[in-house]
Amino acid sequence: MSGFRILVFFTCLLACWSVAAATGVPNVLMIVVDDLRPELAAYGFNQSSPNIANFAKTAALFKSAYCQYSQCSPSRASFLTGRRPATTQVYDLDHYFRDTPGLQNVVTLPQFFKNQGYRTAGGGKIFHPGMASGNNDDAISWTEPYYHSPNERRFGGKTKSWDARSDPEQDFPDAQIATNTIQQLRSLSNGTFFIAMGLHKPHLPFVFPQAYLDRYPAPNNIPLANSTGPPTDLPDIAWSAYAELKKYQDIGALRLRSTTPGNYMPVATAQELRRAYWAATSFADSQVGHVLQEVDNLGLTHNTTIVLMSDHGWHLGDQGEWAKSTNFESATRAVLMVRDPSRPVSAGKTVYTNVELLDVYPTLVDIADFDVPVALEGKSLTPLLNTTFPRIPLTWGNVSYSQVYRGMSGTTGPVMGYTIRTRDWRYTEWVKFNATTNTPDWYTVNAIELYDHRGDAKDVFGYYETANLASDPRYGDLRVSLSAMLQRQSAFKPVVPPTNSAQITTRSGASRPATGANALVAVFLLSCLAWL
């Protein structure tokens, strides 16, 4: 081996180390948008959301992502702990997941990164605020003081369900949360960080600057939902009376008798609400754009994994429903995009495979090159990011599971609605639920639903859930098969984490396949060795 070749080899080795360091992905930015349904430009709709659309061009967009519970606190407790609702036992807006037996020491997603030496910072709505997060936003998860906008009450209240305001944009809570996130990016950019930003809009009340309402036509030109009435043969237990919306005085004054399935919302009010929701979405999109621009300005794009997601969907008159807390597609389907700079092949990719918000935790851990804790109930999405085409690994079930609690119902007592979504079908069973033992009684069935999603391109809302086919004899065998899948799955059985679930996890490295630029580095070094 000549001295010249040795010199060239070590020069190349130093260059490779520099490339590997420059393309590493140690940082994480998590953006959670409250109540955001995937009715965005990035998903093929006409709503004004240019910043999220631009982000989607650089990320993998999961077109079939589903929450595990279509309500804020249960969903967030699930994806932030990596456990299903059956394990967290969070079915309302008050229960704190750490009060659940066996979960006192559960390691949350930000806490996991904190335990690896990351600085963790959050702002806005990440965990559900108040009792559901220990009245301190689960303080153990963060290394930095948690941020809430001082103006939250100023733009809240129960008088109006929506309001276009003339206040300066920077006075709105979400604008202040975005500004705080930008400050966190600047102050933490010299080290490794996990930063989480939770935007409140488009959650009720839909309050936003007037300029965003001006992006949309007059209310009488706003289209109604594709299906404005409930599905045929819909069981009453599956219906939600959208009490969340009726708490606002302007909607309450309508005295809607929405306790049973039906289309009760006046057309003019429905058009106003849809327009206001879209305007609130555009306002949230603008805040996302400010933060993403700062990531670029700080030179963090190459080494920051970004996940943009919602906690669940939202009904805008689909099936006659409003708000959430149902097992319908409009409530359970959520926004999910992941930008992983170490996997450039995933940029701009659309994945149609069914995934769950539960998968976000193991995915971010996996991308950061840590061992995925065995107690997590989701699975890493990296196999879906690694391929050029949206092929489904043989081990992937291509199904998702969700559930909704209904409390007391007739003579059966508490009822839980369990739903499975396959590629072509949605099947739901409403069964007696023992709240003391946290277990379903599959033998006491209150109602069943079956919806045909064959041909569903995810480009309309409510269109494929207009007829409940559960009683149709043509689908008897299918119903039996889906029922068996639903009941034998561990998705609805509580899992107690191992006692060492809080331990620090070290980087695994050696067992992982090289990806992106690191793979090129490995090939180049092998070539150099062969040359020597």
Q: Would you give an account of this structure?
A:
The chain is α/β, with parallel strands linked by helices and 532 residues long. Helices cover 29% and strands 18% of the residues. The protein contains 15 helices and 18 strands. It has helices at 3-22, 50-56, 72-81, 85-88, 109-115, 173-188, 210-213, 243-246, 249-252, 267-297, 329-332, 360-367, 382-385, 476-488, 516-531; strands spanning 27-33, 60-62, 65-66, 119-124, 162-165, 193-199, 206-209, 304-310, 315-316, 322-323, 333-334, 336-339, 350-351, 355-356, 400-409, 413-421, 425-434, 439-452. Strands 4-6-1-8-12-2-13 form a 7-stranded mixed beta sheet, sandwiched between helices. It has a 4-stranded antiparallel beta sheet with strand order 15-16-17-18, covered by helices on one side. The radius of gyration is 24 Å and the shape is globular.
For this entry, give a set of tags.
globular; 18 strands; 15 helices; 4-stranded antiparallel sheet; 18% strand; alpha/beta; 7-stranded mixed sheet; 532 residues; 29% helix
Summarize the structure.
29% of the residues lie in helices and 18% in strands. With 532 residues, it is α/β, with parallel strands linked by helices. Helix 2 packs across helix 10 (267-297).
**CA-to-CA gap between the ends?**
6 Å
Tell me the number of helical segments per DSSP (H or I, 4 or more residues long): 15
Shape: globular
**Major sheet size, sense and barrel closure:** 7 strands, mixed
Beta-strand fraction estimate: 15-25%
User: Which stretches of 5+ consecutive residues score pLDDT under 50?
Assistant: 6-23, 499-530
Question: What Rg do the Cα atoms give?
Answer: 24 Å
Query: How does the helix and strand content classify structurally?
Result: alpha/beta
Mean pLDDT: 89
Strand order of the largest sheet: 4-6-1-8-12-2-13
Provide the helix percentage.
Answer: 25-40%
- Strand segment count: 18
